[in-house]
Protein: NmrA-like domain-containing protein
Amino acid sequence: MPLILVVGATGQQGGAVTNALLASGHNNLKIRALTRNPSSAASKALADRNVELARGDLLDGDSLLTALTGCGAAYLVTDFRGEGDVAGEIKQGKLFTDKAKEANVKHLVFSSVAGADIAQAVEYFYSKFQIEEYIKASGLSWTFLRPSGLMEVLPPAGVGRAFMLGAFAATLRDVAQPYVACEDIGRMIAKAIREPDNFKSKIIDLAGDRVNVDQLQAALGKAEGTRSWRVWLPRWLVLALSPYHYRQMFKWLGLGVQPGDPSECQQILGSVLSVEEWARKQKTLADSA
Structure:
C-alpha cells in the first residue's frame, strides 16, 4: 500500500478520510497528514495514531512538493475562506496539482461539490469545477467525489439549529436537498484511494439522504426524541444578512437542481447514513461524552 497524503486531516472531511483509511484493515497502510501546525493538539492526536505529519500550506509550493514526495496517492480538499477568496481556492487546487505531478503521484482524489459543473451562479462551487478541469488537463490519474450538503453543518438541538432551519425554510422552501455525512465521504474517498483502478476518471455525487426542510426537522426530532422547532424568518432578511457567497448558494439551492442520489452511494458502499441515522449517532456520542 503506497504512502497517502491527506489534506485537512484535522478537519471534518480529511479527518473522516483518515479514520476510514485507518479502519480499512491494511496493516501496511501509511498516511501522511498535511498540516499547518504539527504541534497542535489535533495534529498530535494524529501522530499518536501513527499518522506521519508534514508541515505545509496549500499556497506554499515548496512545502507541498516536500509533503507529496514519495506518495503514491493524495487526497485534496480546498477552501475558499482563506487567502484570496475564491481565486485563492483555485490557486490552491492548481498548485497542489502541479506539485503532485512533479512528485509523480499516481492517483489524486479531489473533494469537489455536487453540481460544481452547473453552479456558475455560486462562485465557491464553480471554483471547484475549474480545479477539476485543471486536474483533468494535467495528465494525472484522478477521481472527483462531489459531496452534497454536509450533515455536520447542522447545529445541535437549540436556538442555533432553530434559526438555521428557519433560514432553510425561508430560502429553500419545500425543495428537497441532498445531504451526506462526513463519515460516508471519508469511506468513499478511502475506497477510491485504495482502489484507484476502479475509480479512475470517475465523478461521483455523494448523498446519503434527500429531504426538504420539514422532513429534515422531523428526522432530527425523531432521532433525538425531542420536539424539533424552528424560527420563522422572512426570505428577504435571511438573504440580506447572509454573507455574499452564502447568499449565492441559497438562491441556487432553492432551484432544486443540486444532484445527489443516495442510491448511487449505497450501490458502492453498501449503506450510507440518512439524516435520522446520522443524528442518532451524534446523540449517542454526545450522551457518552
